[in-house]
## 1
Amino acid sequence: MADYPHFTQFESLPEAVTAFCQLARENGLNVGLQENMDALRMAQLEPLNDRIAFGYALKAICCCSEEERAQFDTLYEWFWGWEKGALKAKTVFKNQSNIQKKTPASLVMMGVGQQQAGQEEEARNVSGANRVERLRKTDFSKIEEMDSELLEEIALKLWKQMSLRLKRKMKASTTKGPLNLRQIIRYSISTGGDPIRLFRKNKKPRKQRLIVLLDVSGSMDKYSFFLLRFICALRVHFEKVEAFLFSTNLIRITEYLSASNLATTLNILSAKADNWSSGTKIGACFRDFNEEHAKRMLNGQSTVIILSDGLDTGEPEVLYEEVQKIRRRTKRLIWLNPLKGMRGYEPTQRGMKAALPAVDIFKSAHNLDSILELEKFLLDV
Amino acid sequence: MTNTSSIQQEFDQFGYVLDEELATVLFLTLHLQKPLLLEGPPGVGKTEVANVLAQALDTQLIRLQCYEGLDVNAAVYEWNYQKQLLSIKLQEGSQKSEAEKESHIFGEDFLLQRPLLRAITATEKSPVLLIDEIDRADEEFEAFLLELLSAFQISIPEMGTIKATHKPLVILTSNRTRELSDALKRRCLYHWVSYPDLPRELRIVQKHLPQLDKQLSENLVRIVQVLRERKLNKVPGIAETLDWVNALVALQATNPNADDLARSLGCLLKSADDIEMVKASGLEELLAVSE
């Protein structure tokens, strides 16, 4: 157990305050020089000499969110507590373990209870930025339960950043949209005040539909949970996302994605998907998709993302034909295969081989970084 | 307002029951002159803090309500285009150079001040600037705020930088419908406003309805506190509690029964599912918790 500093070790209050800021920073709170200075200024304010008020004030300076406040309390207790070491440091990374209790549904999806040997091959016990960096590169199937929550947190954050960049912005235009008076007047001065050139501002064109087909068969077990979350994240920022699950048959899940919180969505989905973790008939499922949905949803401008390992138990001819059909109706067909992340992987399975000619972009989706790479393809969706 | 307890008293006068922590944070806000970010669920009195603060300091409250699509034109400043066009026409015959004309129509006369600019240019004393529900504004808008919140200045390309003569006291509120950017958060003091506990909520109710019977108000508040523990879609805030207590007073239910409860439940719960669920779980039972 690490030895934490205590305020009694310091000679003056400013020193102690600075040391505390350092401690907070080391423990992941967003405390920089500015915060440190604020804390020092605060410590000089006469009426805050009272112990409790001092704590409250320090909290307001050091914390940025509700979760951080909980962590702060622990740190505060260590550092400023009356007795050194009175509180055992067992609650260090409190916020990593109790943010959200996993629902049973998500546990099933993550393949809990199917402990496998060799899960711990990747480096463990790394903290801070290294830990984040490592998790981003770790294969989803090798992520342990404990890490998975942290990974989810990172994933949501990164996906959010990604979608922010993808977001529409107002864009200058000369043909459509409301007049941009500011620009018109600027330019009219050179023509003696007559607004001859008109400028307009217009929204970027609406995003096209995004269609996602997610394989939830047994072989995809370890990945489907994270990929499903990824779909949920996409749903927030793309107005028109259509999502389907498939294994032995095809289920449309678009309507459930809009449930207000993720846990609810996952619960509904797991109840719905009775064929979760069973065999795969990719070709047949795509045929269903083409027959029932494709006409309505695909208009030649849409992008289709297929998330599957391509391990098909059906006839490769069927798959070939159906994938071609989808291709003809879309602008771009993206196939993400988690297996591609494995070293030495070649798309030699019958199914994958059959589908490949029709696929525009063939990428891996085995870890967070590989999913983030998708951004550039989604930019002009 | 020289210490935390005087802030508490001051707020108390204006009908706001302030807990000690928030009082400390407000004290700090006043002395460090940093913006204060208040986060918390809807209906816990975040906006009211700014209102009362302005009253207590006897200063102007400038409010900016954020919404999706809010841009600089609506929040900071806008040029008065009609007037500019007119002025250009009027100057047509004059011998002025182009540069002179330009500097004329981009002068202060043609500037329409929006809340943020008004807050910066206040002449008498520091106003309270309330930026309400910042989480509703687009992420891009947050970036506009950064300059204002750290340096208390606003740059207008045509005019230059306007610096505040009296730093406004800035209070931002957020319902946390989305996470705010780190850059914005780092410029602010942070405080999480949660639902009040029983004693505090009771004090709030008594503050607003002093004529109400003590025992009754305690019973009602207890019911609200129990309801908040349930998994509701929309958890009732303090405003709902006050509405509901008011409603029961209006219904003259001095000893509310299940029927009174059913009739007034809409004041407290704002979702059909919630009302359905609470009714299904038994109103009598709910009344029993207050006994």
Note: Chain B has three domains: 4-68+115-192, 77-113, 198-288.
## 2
Amino acid sequence: MRKSAIYKYLVFLGILLIYPLFSNSSWLAIGTTFIIYSIVALSQDIVLGKAGMFDMGHAMFFGIGAYISAIMNTVFNIPILWAIPVVVLISAIISVLMAMPTIHLRGDYLLVVTIGFNIIFQQVIKNNVFGLTGGPNGIFGIERPSLFGFEFSSDLSVYYLAFFVLILILIMIKNLETSAVGRAFHYLRLDNLAAQCVGINTRFYRLFAFALGASIASIAGVLFAIQYTVISPESFNLMQSILFFTIVIVGGMSSIPGVLLGTFLMFVLPEIFRDFNTYRYLVFGVMMILTMILRPRGIIPKKFGIIPKYLLKDK
Amino acid sequence: MELLKIENLTKIFGGLVAVDHLSFSVKKGQIYGIIGPNGAGKTTVFNCLTGIYKPEEGTVIWKGKDITNYPPDKIANLGIVRTFQTIRLFSDMCVAENIMSGRNQISKQHWYHGLIHTPFSKRDEKKNWLKVKEIMELMNLQDYATELTKNLPYGHQRRVEIARALATEPELIVLDEPAAGLNGHETLDLTNLIFKLRDMGFTILLIEHDMNLVMNVTDYITVVNFGEKICEGTPEIVQNDPAVIEAYLGKEDADDEGDEDEN
């Protein structure tokens, strides 16, 4: 990674680190949710931005994470952090099963299929399946976790827990970018046939992108359940999926700074302008339209052509 | 030794028989040409061979093994790699990244190395990038390493596509009209490159419209018309075959004669 890029990330993480010092409780909650939404948006970006699959149902995996961990915690009294491996596994399996028959579909068809899954998921949790999902009211009374004797009972500690997870996810995505797997995602997005003809098993990598995106989103779902201790179906409906989808498109596909900025613009900015009431969504809509006209590849587009130094010709 | 053997290959689109019981075989170290008029079914043969189309009938045998109906990626991993008539590069990516795509399946990295790098995956990564550097030097592309391929002139893009194919360490390189869209100078470079590749031990199968190039470089030619083989042999035999002259070369000759008569 270039030095200037490292500084930018350090500045960004530095701001997040000291942010709680300057915020009251409601802004701290917005900060925490911003971090959680950033994680979901980054996972959406793996599927949509990197592997180029139009997944418009990503809030479903976010919801699966939240609901499974909440049910495990409230019904079976399992500490919520223990739910993470279970949640990752289940959402990876569900995403692969869901994607297997549909993955070969062209972008727009896949989009409709994923919307369908999201709506089914909504109906399932709203109808209180097996008496576990709590119906339209959702699940409440989720316990805050504790780790090595430390209780994450305060909102501040939950903020830093989410912050820590974000750092892990960012490191992981950076690793992805410099690995054969990550490059395979780009190859199959840019030209699926050409990628196949140099021996890349594009089907495998598509499924892997889906599973990876779903797993990370479900981890964010667990954090969401921890933050609010109450979850309800509206947090994971189609509108949320559209939000995550738009964040990636507006911010810049497969660009980490783009996705983070997108999350800020699409989630935090409307909160800042809450005083303007309904007008804020007018501004919001106009902004989205202008971005697509002026910068169709996103506000901060992905830059290619960054290769190891030892490859450059000596001058 | 027969590397590739195609037997009775037939591909039908609706009512159109694009390839009709075509058979030929390519020996190791050969530069094998397939020629024929436009729409004769040449590219269809390549598409069947590389797994993009499923043939209705016939078999593709690679080193004694039946690989008919294998998917494209599996065929590429067996050592058959192709280029496209209309260049298909990852146009938003730079030259080095494009060539690196050929190393993707050779790389020993597992899926979890996409999440966590280990000393092994870092070594593997470096090894493959160095191989890319080597190929760029071979193909005279090192000056353009970080250039996005969509910004390169056509001739260079061809070279990148061939470089990408080489990166997969193939045995058979299938070139679909490599000279299409190239100027005279670039075509000459291409001719030299094809000879160089042959000398490096690659076997080459090519479709070409540029008759000069085909007659210069190939060892053996199959002529296809309306999906059927009408002739095969060395360039000398093919050039003098009456059926070929009629189907293909003949048209030009007739025009030339006509011109002379008028004069």
Note: Chain B touches chain A through 53 residues (CB under 8 Å).
